[in-house]
Amino acid sequence: MTQTWSPRRVxxxxxxxxxxxxxxxxxSLSDDYDEILLFDLKENVLQAHAIDMREAQIVAGRTRARxxxxxxxxxxxxxxxxxVVFAASLPETPDGTREAFLQGNLGxxxxxxxxxxxxxxxxxxxxxxxxxADVLATCLAHxxxxxxxxxxxxxxxxxxxxxxxxxxxLEVDPGRLDALVIGEHGDGQVLVWSGVTLDGxxxxxxxxxxxxxxxxxRGWFRRWSDLRPGRSSGWTTPVGSARTIxxxxxxxxxxxxxxxxxxxxxxxxxxxxxxxxxxxxxxTPLDYLDDAExxxxxxxxxxxxxxxxxxxxxxx
Length: 316
Fold this sequence. Notes:
This protein is α/β, with parallel strands linked by helices.
C-alpha cells in the first residue's frame, strides 16, 4: 500500500550558512511544517538567524512553523524527524573544483553522520544539499545505516540553468519553457532534449542551437567561479530545495539524485525524476527518455559510482 509522505518535522544541519539558513527561512514561511530544528557549530549566528526568521514570520503572517535552535552535540537526544537536510559545507574557494569540494565536504559529512543517523531514525528521509549532492548521497549510503533509498540529493539547479540557456538562445521568457537535466551534477549531466517544451508544446532545436545551449549550460560553473563571489548559489538552492520538498510531499515527480542500480551493477545516486513512495525516494519509469538519453544516464551512473568509491578510498 502506497503511503503519503508528510514531512511535518525537518532538521537542517548547517543552518547558519547561506544555503541552510535560506532553506530554513523558506520552510518557516510555509504552513506545511510544524517544527524546523536548526543545527550548526556557529550557534551565535544560528540564534541571530532564528530571531530574524521568527520576526519575518510575524511580518509575513505565517507563524505556524516553530523554529528551534539545537546544539549539534545534542542531536542524538532529539526525537527523529521526517526529513534531515545536510547543508553544511566548507567555504568555497575562487579556483575550486567540484572534486575539491567533494573531498572537503565529505569530511564534513563524515563528522555529522552520527547526528544524521540519529535524527533520521528508522523512517526519516535525508536530503543532501551540499555539493556535490549526488556523490555525497552515494557516500552516505555506503557509510551509514540508513537505507540508500531513504537518501536523495538536491539537483534542481541544473534544470533551471538549462532553461536559462535555452531562453538566452531563443530570446524568450524562461517562464514559457520547460526542460530537464538528469544524470550527474557537473560534467556528466544529461540534457533531456527530447523533453524540451515551449508554451507546453515540444520544441525542436537544430544542431547548432543545441551546441550553443549545451556550451552555455555546461559553462555555468566556470563563469560563476570567474566572478570569485566566495559563496554558492544562495537564492536558487534554498528556493529550489523548498520546492523539491513540497513537490515530493505532494506526490509530484521532481529531479533528485536517487538510488539506482544500472544494468552493469553500478550503485549510485543518479539524478532522475522521482517520487516518494512507501518511505523511499524512487525513480519513475524512464519512458520520458530516448535511447541516447538512457545510455547517457547509465554512463553517468557508472561515473558517479566510481567517484564515490575513489572519494571513500581517499578519505578512509
